[in-house]
Amino acid sequence: MFFSNPSKSHCFNGPLKVTATTSLKETTRTIEDRIDGLISKLIRSFEKQYPGRYGDMTFEINKGNKYYKIMEVTSSMGCIASRSVHAFVSRQTGAVYKPAGWKSPAKHVRYNLLDNASYANCLERADWAGGYLYIR
Q1: Across the strands, what pairs with 67?
Q2: What letter does residue 103 receive in the DSSP assignment?
Q3: Inter-axis angle of helices 116-125 and 24-49, to 10 degrees?
Q4: pLDDT per position as a tens digit, 8-46
Q5: Cα 79–37–124 angle (5° rounding)?
Q6: Which of 3, 80, 119, 128 to pair with 96, CA 20 to 30 A apart?
């Protein structure tokens, strides 16, 4: 595990600490690989609900200064019909946020892609519509 959290494994209220053996490059590669895994799960979820309509929904990743923005792109007859923000992921900590709007994430962390248990929970609950991002 690249990050440690002194409190409970499912609670991400404080900043996570980088261990001495972790390099920024390794952390970035891990976050990007896990974002790809999340997007694969979102696509499978869409295909399961709407068989044969995979081309209608795709996901893009926009890399910003602080966050990766996961964009949901809907197309109709080969033309882009709409774009919406599906989630934000912190480039430093791997924290997954529900979007508050087009430009910024909501206040509370939903999952952490660098924590194996949280990542597994995220993949287990992930759906293309984003319901897994609501706090329960």
Answers
A1: 90
A2: S
A3: 20
A4: 333 333 344 444 445 677 878 889 999 999 999 999 998
A5: 105
A6: 80
Establish how many alpha carbons lie within 13 A of residue 16's alpha carbon, considering only the half-sphere containing its beta carbon. 26
Q: Which residue has the tokens 């494994």?
A: 9
State the amino acid at position 131 in one-letter form. Answer: G
Whether 55 contacts 43, CB under 8 Å: no
Domain ranges of the chain: 17-133
- Taking the CB of residue 68, how many other CB atoms lie within 10 A of it? 20
**Residue the block writes with tokens 């949901």:** 72
Q: What is the mean pLDDT of residues 103-131?
A: 93
Contact 9, 121 (CB under 8 A): no
Q: How far is CA 80 from CA 47, 54, 127, in A?
A: 18, 14, 21
Q: Tell me the pLDDT band of 3, cut-offs 50, 70 and 90.
A: very low
Which positions ≥6 away from 37 have C-beta within 8 Å?
A: 119, 123
